């Protein structure tokens, strides 16, 4: 069953969750503190949840997302970084896992893009409310939206490459120490 995996001991689940939570928070802090590559570190923070969801189970991945979201709220100095993690990057590993279980490729991609665009819409509305109309973009809104769709497609592809690399190269080395 994908929701609960009883074959892994609770100690392993807790220790893996703690290690992954620490890596997520370190990635978010790097995104907040390092002046360049903010998007890169946000993307890195999202990769760790895929390890939890595929290696352990869905319930623990959701617990990891919830706990790191609460922790990030208090620890990460940039609320924009926190909001990006909360709305998209933190939960995307779970969403991708669930979408990848869909048998038909077209429906799988529709679900992924729907989640991305809903997250994007919420972020836009939040930014517009907080900045009260001061949000100005140099590209036309439709052009920016199209560009972000392409960026998401590349992000999802790289995410898939990471998952493949993890299971081909790293998984055996990490779990059999």
Quickly list its features.
177 residues, mainly alpha, Arp2/3 complex 21 kDa subunit ARPC3, globular
Give a structural overview.
Helix content is 80%, strand content 0%. By secondary structure, the chain is an all-alpha fold. The chain has one domain (10-175): Orthogonal Bundle (Arp2/3 complex 21 kDa subunit ARPC3). The model has no long low-confidence stretch (mean pLDDT 87).
Kindly report how far apart the N and C termini lie: 27 Å
Radius of gyration over alpha carbons?
A: 17 Å
Topology, number of strands: 0
- Structural class, by secondary structure, is mainly alpha
CATH domain fold name:
Arp2/3 complex 21 kDa subunit ARPC3
Can you count the helices? Answer: 7
> Oligomer, anyone?
single chain
Q: Major sheet: size, sense and barrel closure?
A: none
Assign the CATH class: Mainly Alpha
Give the structure's gist in a few sentences.
This protein has helices at 10-33, 38-55, 58-75, 79-89, 92-100, 105-131, 141-175.
SSE topology sketch:
Layout: H1 10-33, H2 38-55, H3 58-75, H4 79-89, H5 92-100, H6 105-131, H7 141-175
Helix pairs in contact: 1-2, 1-3, 2-3, 2-4, 2-5, 2-7, 3-4, 4-6, 5-6
